[in-house]
Design goal:
The protein has 266 residues and is mostly helical. The chain has one domain. 78% of the residues lie in helices and 0% in strands. It contains 12 helices and no strands. The radius of gyration is 21 Å and the shape is globular. The termini are far apart. The relative contact order is 0.13.
Length: 266
């Protein structure tokens, strides 16, 4: 009687479960590390809401008109995404690189994947949490009104528009030390926000600035979210521009990570 050979079990499924478990562990660790500095969380949550409170609510022509108010909320929600991504990953990565524990973690056999995934998931969670004050202020103090499906669509777009700014945050965090990273983030964040129409609607821009603005990732992200939440016709180039910048920032993040490894582990 011949025994039927049994194919060896493939290790793919256990390996995948182990990778996911490590990514979740790093996510939990990153969240705990961030919330242990309350001012970082409070600043991330409150600044976009304060901007809405002081710059939009006092303007009846904006706060009192439903679609204009929704567009303003979408703009400042996009700014909240940019701010959370750049500060959570950019400043966070740069600060972690100064710790003695960081080189040890990077030499572990799990590799960079679970840790980077944990950072990205943490950034997306903070992007979503930063929308809460903006939505509450809009609900209570403006006439912003749109369908529930458009609200859900706008929230669903948050992880999408966050991707390029998460990658940019990683590139800054791995390229600069902590003090320099904070300065670079501020130099990058606020000009991109102003030129991208996140504080003033692009309809108020002169022609030359509007043309320049449409080539920026901040304007592309803003146009995508405004189109989803208001139903207004959007720019045809917004999504291609967002994808192009995502590719550029991905290359920069990989180069910065490899350069940092070359400096510290050779």
């Amino acid at each position: 009687m011949t025994a039927t050979p049994v194919a060896p079990a493939t290790p793919a499924a256990p390996a995948t479960r182990s990778w996911v478990a490590l990514a979740l562990l790093h996510t939990r660790f990153q969240l705990l590390e961030t919330v242990r500095v309350p001012i970082a969380v409070i600043g991330n949550l409150l600044f976009p809401g304060i901007a809405l409170l002081f710059f939009v609510v006092p303007q009846p022509a904006v706060a009192g008109e439903p679609l204009a108010a929704v567009a303003a909320v979408a703009q400042l929600g996009t700014f909240a995404v940019m701010s959370a991504c750049l500060f959570t990953l950019g400043a966070g990565v740069a600060e972690d690189r100064q710790l003695a524990f960081d080189p040890y973690v990077r030499t572990l056999p799990a590799g960079a994947g679970p840790r980077l995934t944990g950072r990205i998931v943490t950034g997306v969670l903070f992007c979503l949490s930063a929308q809460v004050p903006v939505l509450l202020i809009a609900l209570l103090l403006t006439e912003a009104s749109t369908s529930p499906w458009r609200v859900l669509g706008g929230l669903a777009m948050i992880p999408v528009i966050a991707v390029p700014f998460l990658l940019l945050g990683l590139a800054i965090g791995y390229a600069f030390p902590a003090k320099a990273a904070l300065a670079v983030i501020q130099v990058v964040l606020f000009p991109l926000a102003f030129a991208g129409g996140l504080f003033l609607p692009p309809e108020l821009f002169p022609g030359w600035l509007d043309g320049l603005s449409q080539a920026l990732p901040s304007r592309a992200a803003r146009d995508v979210v405004v189109q989803v939440t208001t139903g207004a016709d959007g720019s045809a180039v917004a999504l291609p521009v967002l994808l192009a910048w995502t590719a550029v920032f991905a290359v920069l993040a990989v180069l910065a990570y490899r350069s940092d490894e070359g400096r510290r582990f050779r």
